[in-house]
Design goal:
DNA replication; alpha+beta; metal-binding; 7 strands; binds 8-OXO-2'-deoxyguanosine-5'-triphosphate; DNA repair; Nucleoside Triphosphate Pyrophosphohydrolase
Length: 134
């Protein structure tokens, strides 16, 4: 059909900041991305706002309650333009993050941001992070 418009999924990530450090999470699956590091988050489901999706994902993946702040960096295209990644700052309201779905969690200072292999799409977001950690 000539009027077919493919759906663009929005993937949200939370840059959880605490005492000048950001929480980095090592993916455990699937095999193609296991061992790469990311911001906790995932797909925004129909009927959900981006902030609601982030709060839900942080509960599911880390067992914490977060408050969402401001955007970090710009939109990053994923999957040949089929999805877009949007990252927001977040702060912990309740709980201590646990690796419920990730292989490992690490709190990184601004000097440690490059110490883990981030998912490739996260590079521009990580580059924009220092301003939020100082
Ligand atoms: N959560 C997250 N995903 C990222 C980041 N960077 C990046 O390229 N991605 C990609 C990896 C995945 O292909 C996709 C997120 O999918 P996901 O499988 O984690 O999302 P989800 O939790 O909603 O998954 P599911 O319910 O469908 O299993 O976005 C990031 O910083 N955080």
């Amino acid at each position: 059909m000539s009027n077919f418009t493919p759906e663009i999924r929005v993937i949200v990530g939370a840059a959880i900041v605490d005492e000048g450090r950001v929480l980095a999470c090592e993916r455990s699956e699937p095999a193609e991305t296991a061992g790469k590091w990311e911001f906790p988050g995932g797909k925004v489901e129909p009927g959900e706002t981006e902030r609601e999706a982030l709060i839900r994902e942080c509960e599911e993946e880390l067992g914490v309650t977060v408050e969402i702040g401001i955007r970090v960096g710009g939109d990053v295209m994923l999957g040949h333009g089929r999805a877009v990644l949007r990252v927001y700052t977040a702060t912990l309201i309740d709980g201590t993050p646990k690796a419920l779905e990730h292989a490992e969690l690490r709190w990184l200072t601004v000097d440690e941001l490059d110490s883990v292999p981030w998912l490739p799409a996260d590079a521009p977001i990580v580059a924009a992070l220092p301003a939020h950690l100082r």
